[in-house]
Design brief:
The structure is a homodimer.
Chain A lengths: L2 H13 L3 E4 L16 H6 L7 E5 L3 E5 L4 H8 L5 E4 L8 H8 L5 E4 L6 H11 L5 E3 L4 H5 L12 E2 L2 H4 L3 H15 L3 E4 L2 H8 L1 E2 L11 E6 L3 E5 L6 H9 L3 E3 L3 H7 L6 E4 L6 H6 L5 E4 L3 H7 L3 H27 L8 H14 L3 E4 L4 E4 L23 E6 L1 E3 L2 E2 L2 E6 L5 H18 L2 E3 L4 H13 L10 E3 L8 E6 L16 E4 L2 E4 L3 E4 L2 E11 L2 E8 L17 H18 L5 H8 L5
Helix pairs in contact in A: 4-5, 14-15, 16-17
Chain lengths: ~600, ~600
């Protein structure tokens, strides 16, 4: 039993709280959060990026998704916390669990600044038929977490227009125009990447996500940025003042919303907004709900961003290809660990121009580690490589020219026929999705089949989405575009010209090995005629596939030519930027 | 200007009605309706199966979908009615049109027994911000349609269990169990095919649809069938009495619903239920909404139905193959008309066992007629065939063993390379969709791409869905299963084992020719393992593709083997049932 759990229960008893909910979010429903917010990891010991803890007086449960089943099982062992595998048959949702455990007169508590309205609505709906009390503004973790880190507060900086491709002035104009059309007086922006995009400002308050912890409130004539003073450097201050934006203290947004005059209206993302913020808005203020207009504007990359992204992928391709070549040259790979590979790659990336850092925690997973979908090596878990089988390497970088996210599965030595067969099946998915031609109006749901067909044909599958949107020097996972086989949470997003999405089929054999092949693909127009507008993808990623792992004869003629064309393209693009031996090796990867 | 329009306007003036709405439905939202219900055709002259007429004092508009644009344009010429092409850019929806035309104090009228709640809700939502009066129970057409046919009223008959595969007693039990689970006191069944399925009774009240005009009200202890006395033959009467069902006069359902006791609850399909029926339910009765439990039960064919369907398709394959062979033997096809082909096919079908009639109005479309998606030849429009190009033949039959729906595009003589190229592209879609292997949870939206990929790749497309559900000796179009590229009206239906769907990609070049290739495909289990349940399709249709139209080299090796396997399968299945010369010709169709 964890001490932290025990301490939490004492606080619960003191406050008369029967169930306490701890989520993974910050005030902004961010995917990654600052250390200050990691209450769930502090109490439960499970430190994956997604998970929700429910603590009752006598039991406790943690919910996480397929990416983290194995990790959570290990980290929760002996904790007194039961693992609930979200989405598996017979596993209750959090709100169903609460409904089965809470009876009349009991109290559910949580820190509402970290709970999204989406989750809160699901819970309220489920518990509405009984008399349950809610304490929505009680942060019990704060009381027991003695060495809780401070709120992150780092200097922000201005992203020049030659990188952003559109001035903040112009973006503010577009967003205000959209507000006018919706007849909304204010727009509340809580998503940190949306604020960063709108202001062309970046920061360093969240690991892997170059954003500034802040809120933004926009009106037609006024604009307020609720931000910690540490972020506002003189350069940043000058920029925002020039845009007519007033800087206010970070937490003041809560009071400001409470003071909005009745009869006005406010546009907000009612799923991602936190409960405390939402409840601060007076009843007389009309809430206009749905994802903000910024979300789609940000997802559609402008011409400058697209061209920059190509440059970022060139830099990234050089680093990755050098890494793969270096690895292939090692006479005994057992002398290297998974972490060594990550460090070497980071070293190569740092040699590239305008590299700012990793876009997420790197995954270098050897052998059976590859089957743990979101395994991240650390000092404890990192193992030596092997002279056979696969290394799965999923990493990404931030450049001034954009964000990358790439996975290659690298042959370390002899492979079995089965391994090569599986690699080839995953590769088929990647090639076929990357070559899709589709009519405007399609969502990722229409195209997901292409990535899975070769696996499904043999009764195989992977337990994650095929693709996620990727930000421009912003979050490596962004909405609304996605490629999935089942729509999640309502309407799918139509794929628009300029959107960048990942293309990452995989296959995971628990205890044996994992394979994933990931490129970023840019949606662009192919032709427009009387039948409609037809779109296609341009693959941005420039890193060779591993020809040692390919069973050439299992590829269709079309797949063979897609593969050859890609390998040739990578070679042509990178050859002059690579050391000569690496370039020669790369030329050898064009054909098997 | 049509006289009927003028007469209708006089009645509108008399009643103080400013806008009058005429839809295509009967009391049951049926796709095909009895002659009695064809008010829209009577007033407008447009007799396609789908269309809505809005008559204002000074103007009138007719809305129809892509299948009928060309036909409607022709039939509305000179009528004084404007054609609105639903779904095209800039074309207002009916409710938007009404909102733009109706102002404060005006009155909208319609016969609520024929208007679905789905349409009504859309209209009310759009007009809710102004003071419009509604007259929902006024049938003006009835006053001006002097020679209006009577309500259809034909004898019903009992479908034996060896055809239905499940007794009505058992079906009633399953439906009642489902009601219990939903805690609903009553189920209102308005869809005619659902009633026919539930009672294992068929009828003849609607062309192409072997159903009985009736309503059904089911409780746990009681059941009422609201039906015209002409339908209830002694055999039918005995059967339903044996099931504990009471027969009541058809229109009495309206009064019966009005008398439901407060505090009870009724399950109903709130989209398809007509406005008058819906409004008859007292306020104190709780309405539990959504498609009825019968819809899904009916769509999932049981083992007996599946096996019977195979037999029906054998009979149908014999008739179609004889027809194609006969046509190919004609020395001068100009001596035949489109209608001649339909008659000949009907003659061959009638030679088959247990053939009951056509499942929809047959389409035999030569040359440019093929580009009119739902062209149906009649005495006026039927043209002679040609000795070149294509004949598009889309027909279907009802057998005691089930319902068929098949389209073949038949080569009448020399083809251009472009025609063969287009035929081959459509064929690719049919073959690839038919060979899909997919994980349980997929909807038709996941698979539609397979049918369109070869066309989209060249910037081509077809303006209709790829597949629709097909009933068992019931409606040739049934919900909920469908294969479309965009979800229509809410949530897509997961493809379940036992569902039968059409697979019908096409291509239409206005003024030139049309191609469509349609098979029915049965969803069945392929394997189940730790990755999930995997499904595949069995193609039920047994009619050869036209090898004269195929460009073999444009098919991938996989497509070539799929085509050869299908042609071989058709030959093996049919050869002993065909006249010898036809069988020999069919053998020649296996390879090109």
């Amino acid at each position: 039993m964890r001490t932290e759990l025990d301490l939490l229960r004492r606080e619960m008893a003191e406050e008369g709280i029967d169930a306490y909910l701890i989520v993974s979010d910050d005030d902004h429903a961010s995917e990654y959060v600052g250390e200050y917010y990691k209450c769930r990891a502090f109490v439960s010991g499970f430190d994956g990026s997604a998970g929700t803890l429910v603590v009752l007086r006598e039991e406790a449960g943690l919910w996480t998704d397929g990416r983290y089943f194995i990790q959570a099982e290990q980290q929760l062992a002996g904790s007194g916390i039961t693992l609930y595998r979200s989405g598996e048959n017979g596993v209750p949702a959090i709100e169903e669990f609460l409904a089965s455990k809470l009876s009349e007169g009991m109290t559910l508590g949580f820190d509402g600044t970290t709970v999204s309205m989406a989750l809160w609505r699901r819970i309220v709906r489920k518990l509405s038929d009984r008399q349950i009390s809610f304490r929505t503004t009680v942060d019990l973790c704060d009381r027991i977490w003695q060495s809780r880190p401070a709120l992150p507060a780092h200097p922000a900086w201005v992203l020049e227009e030659r990188y952003a491709g559109e001035s903040s002035r112009q973006k503010l104009k577009r967003v205000r125009e959209s507000l006018r059309q919706e007849r909304a007086d204010y727009l509340l922006v809580t998503a940190l990447d949306e604020i960063a995009w709108l202001l062309n400002i970046r920061g360093d308050d969240i690991a892997y996500s170059p954003v500034v912890l802040s809120f933004f409130l926009l009106g037609q004539e006024e604009a307020f940025w609720y931000v910690q003073p540490e972020a506002v450097t003189p350069q940043v201050k000058e920029t925002v003042i020039g845009l007519g934006i007033e800087c206010r203290p970070y937490r003041e947004i809560y009071k400001r919303l409470a003071g909005l005059p009745a009869g006005t209206s406010i546009r907000l993302d009612d799923s991602a907004t936190n409960v405390t913020l939402y409840q601060a808005i007076p009843r007389g203020v009309e809430k206009k709900k749905g994802s903000t207009p910024i979300q789609l504007m940000k997802a559609v990359k402008n011409e400058v961003e697209q061209e920059n992204m190509r440059k970022a992928h060139y830099q990234d391709g050089i680093a990755l290809t050098r890494l793969i070549y270096w690895l292939k040259q090692q006479p005994d790979k057992k002398m290297l660990t998974e972490l060594d590979v990550c460090r070497k790659l980071e070293e190569y990336r740092r040699e590239g121009e305008h590299y700012l850092g990793q876009s997420f925690a790197p995954i270098a997973a050897c052998g059976a580690h590859g089957a743990i979908v979101h395994y991240e090596p650390d000092e404890k878990s990192s193992i030596p490589l092997d002279n056979e089988g696969f290394l799965l390497l999923d990493t990404g970088g931030h450049y001034l020219e954009g964000t990358t996210d790439v996975t290659r599965t690298i042959t370390l030595g002899p492979l079995t026929q089965e391994q090569r067969h599986h690699y080839t099946a995953v590769l088929k998915g990647n090639l076929n999705l990357g070559a899709a031609v589709f009519k405007y109006g399609c969502t990722g749901v229409n195209l997901d089949y292409l990535a899975r067909a070769a696996l499904w044909d043999e009764g195989l599958d992977y337990n994650h989405g095929t693709g996620h949107g990727v930000g421009y020097l912003l979050n490596v996972h962004e909405e609304p575009n996605a490629i999935r086989f089942r729509e999640r949470g309502g309407s799918g997003s139509v794929l628009e010209e300029g959107m960048i999405t990942s293309n990452e089929p995989g296959l995971y054999l628990e205890g044996r090995y994992g394979i994933r092949l990931e490129n970023l693909i840019l949606c662009r127009k192919r032709q427009e005629n009387e039948y409609g507008t037809f779109l296609e993808f341009e693959t941005l990623t420039l890193v060779p596939f591993d020809m040692e792992a390919v069973l050439w004869d299992e590829l269709s003629p079309r797949e063979q030519s897609l593969l050859t064309a890609y390998q040739q393209r990578v070679y042509d693009a990178l050859k002059d930027g690579l050391p000569q031996e690496a370039a020669e090796w790369l030329r050898g990867q064009i054909l098997q």
